[in-house]
Amino acid sequence: MKITVVGTGYVGLVTGTCFAETGINVTCVDIDQRKVQMLLDGKVPIYEPGLDALLERNIEKGRITFTTNLAKGLKDSEAVFIAVGTPPDEDGSADLKYVLGVAKEVGQLMEDYKVVITKSTVPVGTSLKVKKVIEEELKKRKLDIPFDVASNPEFLKEGSAVEDFLKPDRIVVGIENERAQKTMKKLYKPFLMNGHPLLFMDIFSSEMTKYAANSMLATKISFMNDIANLCELVGANVDMVRKGIGSDARIGNKFIYPGTGYGGSCFPKDVQALVRTADEHGHSLDVLKAVENVNYKQKSVLVNKIKAHFGDNLKGKQFGMWGLAFKPKTDDMREAPSLVIIEQLRALGAEVRVYDPVAMEEAKHSLGDTVYYAKDEYDACIEVDAMILVTEWSEFRMPNFRILEKLMNNKVIFDGRNVYDPEEMKELDYTYYSIGRATVNANQNASASKKITA
Fold first, then answer.
1. Lowest-confidence range among 287-301, 350-364, 439-453?
2. Residue 159, exposed/middle/buried by CB under 10 A (0-12, 13-18, 19+)?
3. Backbone φ and ψ of 66, nearest 5°
């Protein structure tokens, strides 16, 4: 079986490479000649654990190739995946110009039956627009070539995308007839043999499923951030609360970790797009609007704690920041809380030294020369007034606090991911701020120690 994947971004590249791993012949198409050449050389333009080895193996086996020529990609292919970007428009709605641009070109070039599948995250009704665009182009060519459209949303987590694709907890496919269903069953046959559920439904429901899933997860995150902030006010410990509700099977223990807000390529734009879709149909999704509002405020929670500790004027202050990507195991800086925190700190007069294991180069596109890019996490903390942990990379979990103590001007840590144990911070005599837990104050610790000694 041969398929075409249009777009070699995060979704398209993972999709094409993983399908090739199952034995399917894949042609990936992209308009970026530089990126195509990089991929032909076996180099991955994004950071995703395990993807580079998978790509290299399938290039060597001849199961995947890359081109800028869509006509070449379409030749003899049974299915065409549209996996291009759908960035948010100014009003929060999804910009479909790239998706519909691909549909137009497919209509101009196709010579035989295809199933045209939207893999990009798109609003309900997009597949109908794709179908209409293709039909219009075929009409211009005075051709009556049969084709079907389908929806096959992705549910990939950055940092574990390869595993998510090869071992999915479910595969959702929206189809409009049995012929399209037969093609999609053939495509996903290797996954069915491994027992992974393939859920067929109408196209509108499939498109809605993607937005609903991401919005539900975003809701859990914002809800827990709201609860965490309340915990601090009433003296509760969010870690205990999280364990208490996470053991409830109806809720589960995923996406209930408080922090500095969600970011990345999916949750922010998908929540916005679903809210906008509802508005367009005269319905207000008040819960999701609140989710957005909570997330917006949560990105400032660490800066508010910093101002409470140092005052509103941070001129002359310097901060070390650990983590820039919106989450570990990725270099994705889209909607990253770190960007908001850095912007706010600089507006208050502070300087920032930053370090991230993989996102440094990507961060430069957004931050330019406004920060100091450190060689490692300890370099980021030389003569700083406090350390700020934003992304919970594993290498930040057990630092040498004695080395930090010698490097920093003040033993103050603002932990945006609750990585460290407050009791340990107390024993080490650090002033320690986290999310939804009591603050550890070094001065109070010292006073208490003196009283005990006396």
1. 439-453
2. middle
3. -135, 145
Instruction: Tell me whether residue 294 is in a domain.
Output: yes
Contact call for residues 114 and 79 (beta carbons, < 8 A): yes
Alpha helices in 311-441 (DSSP H): 337-347, 360-367, 401-407, 422-427
pLDDT in tens, 358-412: 999 999 999 999 999 999 999 999 999 999 999 999 999 999 999 999 999 999 9
Among 152-161, 304-313, 321-330, name the one with the lowest average pLDDT: 152-161
Q: pTM of the full predicted structure?
A: 0.84
Residues 179 and 243 in one domain: no
**Cβ count within 10 A of residue 283:** 10
For 236, 242, 293, 308, the CA distances from 341, given in Å and listed in that order, are 26, 25, 17, 15
- Under 8 Å between Cβ of 73 and 29: yes
Active site residues per annotation: 266
Residue 293 and residue 309 in one domain: no
Rg of the chain taking only CA atoms, in angstroms: 25
In this structure, is the dihedral angle defined by the CA atoms of residues 331, 336, 337 and 340, taken in order, positive or negative? positive
**CATH number of 130's domain:** 3.40.50.720
Q: Are β-strands 114-118 and 79-82 bridged in parallel, bridged antiparallel, or unpaired?
A: parallel
The set of residues, in sequence order, having a beta carbon less than 8 Å from that of 132 and lying 6+ positions away, is none
- Residue-range definition of the domain harbouring residue 66: 2-201
Please say whether the beta carbons of 151 and 118 come within 8 A.
yes
